[in-house]
Amino acid sequence: MFLWLSLCGVVVLLAYLFGSFPTGYLAGKLLKGIDIREVGSGSTGATNVLRTLGKVPGAFVLLIDALKGVLAINLGYALFNIAYSQNLIPPTVNPEIWQPYLVTLAGLAALLGHSKSIFLGFTGGKSVASGVGILLAISWQVGLSTLGVFALVIAISRIVSLSSIAGAVAVSILMVIFHQPLAYILLGLTGGLYVIIRHRTNIERLIAGTEPKIGQKVETQTEQVT
Known about the structure:
Helix content: over 70%
Largest sheet: none
Distance between the termini: 38 Å
Enzyme class: transferase
Organism: Dolichospermum compactum NIES-806
Radius of gyration: 18 Å
Pathway: Lipid metabolism; phospholipid metabolism
Protein name: Glycerol-3-phosphate acyltransferase
């Protein structure tokens, strides 16, 4: 059992490290020699990269950050597949119960890593792109439906942060609609709440009516990455 718990711990740790990979920060350094945390919104996420570096770098960062979430989830799946083939799963472990919870922990670790990267002094992005990757890896129906909510809100409002918040709110509801395990519903609730908290300064600007729309610049707000 100790070996099994150790393997589960390694999966969660690796998921955090995958999430911590500083895609946006590296893009800023390599393309413009800047610290992306010191410009725009102060976030290392794809939206700030889009505003600061342009569409192609923004799309690239979005893709890589989403893949971080996909990799994190597949680590959890891979452990069970490999452990089953090698007879490493203890008799007391029911894979149908354990796997969703391990996958949930891996997903939450990746979200935390994206926004609190060990490579950036525990700063980072808003965990939206990684969250999308996590959802698509767990349930493509939930992932695509969440993207649909995001797209609808952004088409109406032209505000990325509002669309991200709407998607975060919708996740747990969609998990229930698509009959996902309790562990994934809890992931939707916890992860969604975390993403909303990461948007707290955006929420303040939304209330004040000063949140920028697509194409508008935003003054540097380094407190967003704390």
